[in-house]
Amino acid sequence: MSYFPLLMNIDYKKVVIVGGGHVARQKIEALLPTKATLIVISPAVTETLQHYINEGLVTWKEKAFEPADLDDAALIFAVTNDEKVNNAVEEATQHWQLLSRADAKGRVDFINPAVVRRGDFIVTISTSGSSPGLTRRVKIDLAEQFGDHYAQYVSFLKEARQRILQVYTGAKKTHLLSELLDPQLLQWIEQDEKQKCEAWLQQRIGEKQ
After folding, report:
1. How far apart are the C-alpha atoms of 205 and 174, rounded to whole Å?
2. How does pLDDT run across 70-109, given as a tens digit for each residue?
3. Key word Iron present in the record (predicted)?
4. Collapsing DSSP states into helix, strand and coil, what is residue 63?
5. Nearest residue to 37 via CA among 16, 61, 68, 9
6. Would the pLDDT of 62 be above 50?
7. 29 in a domain, yes or no?
């Protein structure tokens, strides 16, 4: 199967996770950085999931799955260890809804890549299900390569780009946007010297310090 890589905005959309075990926890933890409405359908949940529920991050319906549980859901995860339940979830999923079955025994509209997230900077890794172990290894490598300072770095690049676009067009704009990738800026951010980045930017766009 050839998957199409996509970053999807699911803020304020309903996401249903059928199952309350380890895999459900993994899916929910991947979804928590979004503003999606997360609903778990399961007679029981893990201790970690219970914590998220107590914090108000997830809504738990303490019950067995019923087709009506999927009403208005944009994404659906069938992650129980019972194939019959997963089959029932698949049967109840409408053609316009996206379904992922953890057991991969039926309809799988999408899979979750591994993610390294640093603010707006997001790197995803996938082997299309071929080798989860390799996916995890590459994720660890990339997490070390792109440290936490990348969140602040990308935030600076975003703000700087907006300020440049407000002032310049044409060749000058293109040149300044290219200069934003000067490795010195990343080094200053990593050294917690963002004021040097600001001075650098002000000098180039003609702002008074």
Report:
1. 13
2. 999 999 999 999 999 999 999 999 999 999 999 988 999 9
3. no
4. coil
5. 16
6. yes
7. yes
Angle 194-205/149-167 helices, nearest 10 degrees? 10
Which of 29, 28, 47 has the alpha carbon at shortest distance from 39?
A: 28
Q: Are 13 and 37 in contact (CB under 8 A)?
A: yes
With a CB cutoff of 8 Å and minimum separation 6, the contacts of 149 are 186, 189, 190
pLDDT above 70 (res 209): no
Kindly state the average pLDDT of the residues 170-181: 95
Token reading at 95: 């053609």
Placement of tokens 């690049």 in the chain:
157
d(CA 86, CA 91) in angstroms, rounded, equals 9
**185 and 108 within one domain:** no
- CA–CA dist 176, 154 (Å, integer): 16
28, 82: one domain: yes
Rounded average pLDDT over 8-16? 97
pLDDT at 207: 59
Number of domains in the chain: 3
pTM: predicted TM-score of the whole model, two decimal places: 0.85
